[in-house]
Every structure is written in C-alpha cells, then in structure tokens.
Amino acid sequence: MGTLTLALLGGAAIRRTPFTRWPIFGRVDERRLLRALRSGKWGKLEGGEVAAFEKRFAAMHGCRHGVGVVNGTVSLRLALMAAGLEAGDEVIVPPYTFYATASSVIEANGVPVFADIDLHTFNLNPAAAAAAITPRTRAIIPVHFAGQTADMRAFRKLGRKHGLTIIEDAAHAHGGLHRDGPAGSLGHLGSFSFQSTKNLTAGEGGIITTNDATLAERCISLHNCGRVPSGAWYEHHVLAGNYRLGELQGALLNSQLDRLEAQTTTRDRNGRWLGARLVELPGIFPQTRAADCVRHSYHLFMVRLDGEQFGAPRAAVIRALQAEGIPCSGGYAISLNRQPMFLNKSFGPYLPGARSKLNFRRIHCPNSDLICEQQGIWIEQRVFLGSRSDMNVIALAFEKIYENRNALAGWARRHLSNSLTT
Questions:
Q1: Which residue segments constitute the domains of the chain, with CATH numbers given?
Q2: Rounded CA separation 257/57 (Å)
Q3: Distance, CA of 167 to CA of 185 (rounded, Å)
C-alpha cells in the first residue's frame, strides 16, 4: 500500500461513502404493513400475520413451535419460566453478552452464575460452565455470540448428565447453522430478538422456538395472560402477562423474513473472506470459526487486537478505523458480571432470600475482561451485506493502520489517557 498517511493524522480516508444502510426495506414491506394496517386487526388474537410468521420462522430454524413475543428479553424470561425455574435456582450464563441474558434470569427469580468464555470463539466455555454447576443449577444459557453457534454438543451433554435445561440465546444468530441443525433448534428452547440492530428486525420483538410440545404450550400460556386452550377467556392458570407480538410487527417480519436466507449467506461469505485476510496481520485475531459452525450469521464481525503485537493500542486503532470510514466500536466496556446492577445487587423485588449470600465482586472471568477492556473490536452486520470490494476496503484500512502503527502509537501517547490506551 505504501506509506499513505492515516486519515486520523490528516490523510485521505480510504472509505468516503456509506456502507449498506440498515434496515433494508421497500415497497414489499410497505404493502404488507398497509395490508395489516387496513385490516383493522392489529393484535395477534385477531389477525394472521404473527401466526404465519411464527410458523415460517420456526420451520426455517428447524422447530415445530414458535411463540412471538414483545422482545428478546421477555423470550428468555418466559423460556426460563416454562422450564420450571424456581426462586433461587441457578442458571449458568456467559459474562460476554448483552445485559438481558442475565437480567432475564433475575426477573425469573433465579440466580445468574457467570462462567467465562473461550478467548478465541467468544462463546461460553463448556469447561467453565461444567465447573460452575452446583446442586442448585437448573439451566445453562449458551449465547451464539456474534452469530456463531456455541459448542452445543458439549452443552447438550452437560444437560443430559446433570438434568439441566439448555436455552439458546440466539439473539445474534438468525439463520445460523450448526452441523446438528439451525440455531434455535439445538437446545430445549431458543430465544431470538428482533430489535432494531438485529439481522432480522421489526424495530422490536422476539420469539421462542422449541421442538417440545409441552414447553411450547407453557410458553403460549405465559405470553397470553396464563390462559389455556381448554379454559374460558377470563380464566388464568399461571402467573403471566400479555407479551404477545403485534400484527404490524408480524407483517414487517414476514416481509423481512423473505430476505433472511440470502442475507445470511452473503454475510457468511463476506465474513469468511475478511477473516481470512485479516488473520495475516500481526496481533489481529478474528473470531475463531468452530468446526461445528456451518453458517455464521455475522451479527457482528469480531476480532481481538493484541496491542503489543500489532504495535498500537486498541482505542487508537478504533479511532483510526473510524476516521478511515469503517464503522466499528470496542463493544462492551466491562464484563456483564461487573455491571453496577450486579455489583450493587439492585434486583428490585427479586431474590430477597438469596441476595445477602451473593457477591458478584468475587467473580473473575479473565477472558471476558481481556476482550472488554483491551482487545475487542466489533464491526456491525449491515457492513457484511455489501460486496467483496467493501470487504477489501476494510482489509485495506487495517493494513494501512498497521503500516502506520508507529505514528498511531505516538498519537495515542499524546491524545489518549492511560485508561484508553489499551
């Protein structure tokens, strides 16, 4: 590439035009939304959009049952409740994930137990999860982080050995494939989110997937005010609420679902290519692709950057990438177990009996901490809907920064505080 000056230091940016916009929508989406709007049937109980989507999405993900709900946090909580979680029961979760993976456990009156991730795949480490199992453990929530399916054979084995429910947090993994089947079909229950940034979106929303008819029946009751098919309308059998997905969102999800297969294939192809290119740079470690991962959803493209090997700290590299026109961030700043809510045990009305015994300050998850505080870089999924040329631009940006690493390191010493130079 030569010795082009970094955009951060006054040179020309490699990328001056936006990458693929998100969300993607057009007249097909508009027509389906208008049809649902004009029907006057905006709730799931009156219309057919959500019911159609539940069947289509579940089938695409290898499941017989799908229950559409208001968001991905609710889908996790209802899955836990359907699994029979009782007050004080423990659920093993990773520390490198969105807040909801663990907060949903507390909202189900359970205790989240953090087990560290694998440094290379960014997914929950089965050995760490196994070491965290106690007589109070009732479930494990592996997260398919960034869109790569977790080591589900290992987690299913743990589930069988200890009688545990395995709930997939597949919020990143729409369309993802493991060699044993699609994401969402690999545990007892799966949970997906349709929040604005997700690979399939209606702004908000979620779904629970399962192949277990009994669990599906429980989820249906839990999301519909505790009603059962044989009961009267104002007859409520379990503590529940109205968590039903709306018809307008269902209509949008149905039109968006038509694109998901092709979009996931494109993301996977582009992510594979970029990972193979970037791994050639010293200190750059793209998310290791497990042998079981047949198709990666690439909700995020994840790399670890070892600042010492690369020659410049992560914070400076991120600033340099952004200046070159590459949308990226460092992702989570701290591991989930170090969030104030857990350190302060601000659990509202939940876990009154167990709260005094919990001390999240004692938890140590070094792999998650290292990625959060020093090494993680995220590139968002919309970028991977672009062309091979787009991927080449990203690779060239990393290469340009590496060639100018000494100048960038000097800039970092002058402009970044000690806390930001990792």
A1: 7-16+260-333+370-420 (3.90.1150.10), 27-256 (3.40.640.10)
A2: 8
A3: 10
pLDDT for residue 353: 87
Does the structure show a pLDDT above 50 at 261? yes
Q: How far apart are CA 133 and CA 138, in angstroms?
A: 9
Residue 369, helix vs strand vs coil: helix
Q: What are phi and psi of 265, to 5 degrees?
A: -60, -40
Q: Is pLDDT at 417 greater than 80 in this prediction? A: no
Residue 96: active-site member: no
Radius of gyration (C-alpha) of the chain in whole angstroms: 22
Q: Catalytic annotation on 172? A: yes
388 is catalytic: no
Give the active site residue among 55, 195, 292, 350.
195
The angle, 0 to 180 degrees and rounded to 10, between the axes of the packed helices 247-278 and 27-39 is: 160
For 140-189, the DSSP string reads E--B-GGG----HHHHHHHHHHHT-EEEEE-TT-TT-EETTEETTSSSSE
- What pLDDT shows up at residue 3? 72
Q: Are 34 and 247 in contact (CB under 8 A)?
A: no
The catalytic residue among 29, 89, 151, 169 is 169
Catalytic residue among 138, 188, 227, 304: 227
Given the residues 16, 21, 38, 234, select the one marked as catalytic.
234
Per-residue confidence (pLDDT) for residue 421, from 0 to 100: 45
Structure tokens at 298: 């690439």
Contact 38, 253 (CB under 8 A): no
C-alpha to C-alpha distance for 172 and 183, rounded to whole angstroms = 10
Strand 189-193 relative to strand 165-169, pairing:
parallel
Q: Are 228 and 27 in contact (CB under 8 A)?
A: no
| Residue 169: active-site member | yes
Q: Is 357 tagged catalytic?
A: no
Please tell me which residue in 32, 174, 244, 319 is annotated as part of the active site. 244
* Catalytic residue of the set 198, 218, 277, 296: 198
Check if 244 is active-site: yes
195 is catalytic: yes
- The count of C-alpha atoms lying within 13 angstroms of the C-alpha of 416, restricted to the half-sphere facing its C-beta, is 20
What tens digit of pLDDT does each residue of 176-200 get?
A: 999 999 999 999 999 999 999 999 9
Question: Tokens 């996790």 — which residue?
Answer: 76
Choice among 77, 172, 188, 319 that is catalytic: 172
- Are 158 and 129 in contact, with CB atoms under 8 Å apart? yes
Q: Is 12 exposed, middle or buried (0-12, 13-18, 19+ CB in 10 A)?
A: exposed
Residue whose entry in the numeric block shows the structure tokens 């429980």: 218
